[in-house]
Amino acid sequence: MYSVNYHRASSLADAAKLMKNGDAKLLSGGMTLIPAMKTRLASPSDLVDVSRLNDLQGVKVSGKTVTIGAATTHYDVYSDEKLRKACPALAHLASLIGDPAVRHKGTIGGSIANNDPAADYPAALLALGATIITNKREIAADKFFKGLFETALKEGEIATAVSFTAPAKAAYQKFRNPASRYAIVGVFVAKGKDGVRVAVTGAGEDGVFRSKEIEAALAKNFDAAALAGLKLPAKGLMSDIHASADYRANLIAVMAKRAVMAANA
Fold it and tell me: Whole-angstrom Cα distance, residue 260 to residue 91?
């Protein structure tokens, strides 16, 4: 490690002010930032800790509207009884992230702000048609995730919460790396008042994306049978030591079928 200035923000306004110091970075769970600093892939001059800000924590359910504070841990997302009733698919997704140590420290806001191409939450928020709330504005998930490790957040902008309308049906299935537990392919399906939305993580060369082919098939019939024989193009999908683009294309179809079956169960 190297010398760094650590600040514990007392409020959201204080955090925004502290973010103007040099090359400051927000610290919540630190599941990505701290390892990156250890390996010198990141070298911020200042760390602004927002993990203890009560305004950024917790799950709120009002009717069909679900709001989750950005500093809410994966474990708290998984274990919240209100969320389990409103959107069990998202609670289930949180239970699949990393290991217990990661789930008790990592946060939903940190995950979406980092936008790892194999992270789970981006697929959920994209499929749910969620809104990302910041200290300055509200951003639709369709416009928030821009590419590999890239989002619509501007310099000094802080994600404070995510909000979405609970779907009528939803489920998430992933084929995960046995070591990291990141998704080699993960598929989140959601059926709501605006129709069917399907998002894929772990597979795209540009990160999370919606599958128009699967959405079109399920819009006609929200059943796994609607995906029988569906072959997805490998173009635009990743090939690496874990899986080829062709293999991932097949996995997307398989995980989508499993997700629809789980949503209908």
Answer: 17
- 2: which 2 tokens? 């190297």
Burial of 59 (C-beta count, 10 Å sphere; 0-12/13-18/19+): buried
- With H, G, I as helix, E, B as strand and everything else as coil, classify residue 201: strand
175 sits in which H/E element: strand 169-176
> What is the C-alpha to C-alpha distance for residues 184 and 260, in angstroms, rounded to an integer?
19
CB 145 within 8 A of CB 116: no
**Nearest one of 202, 131, 200 to 160, comparing CA atoms:** 131
Q: What is the pTM of this model?
A: 0.95
For residue 91, the SS3 value is helix
Long-range contacts of 234-241 (CB under 8 A, 24+ apart): 236/204, 236/205, 236/206, 236/209, 237/203, 237/204, 237/205, 238/117, 238/203, 238/204, 238/205
How many residues does the structure list for the chain?
265
Q: What is d(CA 105, CA 154) in angstroms, rounded to the nearest whole number?
A: 25
Q: Mean pLDDT in runs of 10 for the chain (265 residues)?
A: 89 96 93 92 94 96 98 98 98 96 96 96 98 98 96 96 98 95 97 96 98 98 96 96 97 98 97
CA dist 256 and 77 (Å) reads 23
**In the chain, what are the domains?**
5-48 (3.30.43.10), 56-264 (3.30.465.10)
C-alpha 162: how far from its chain's center? 10
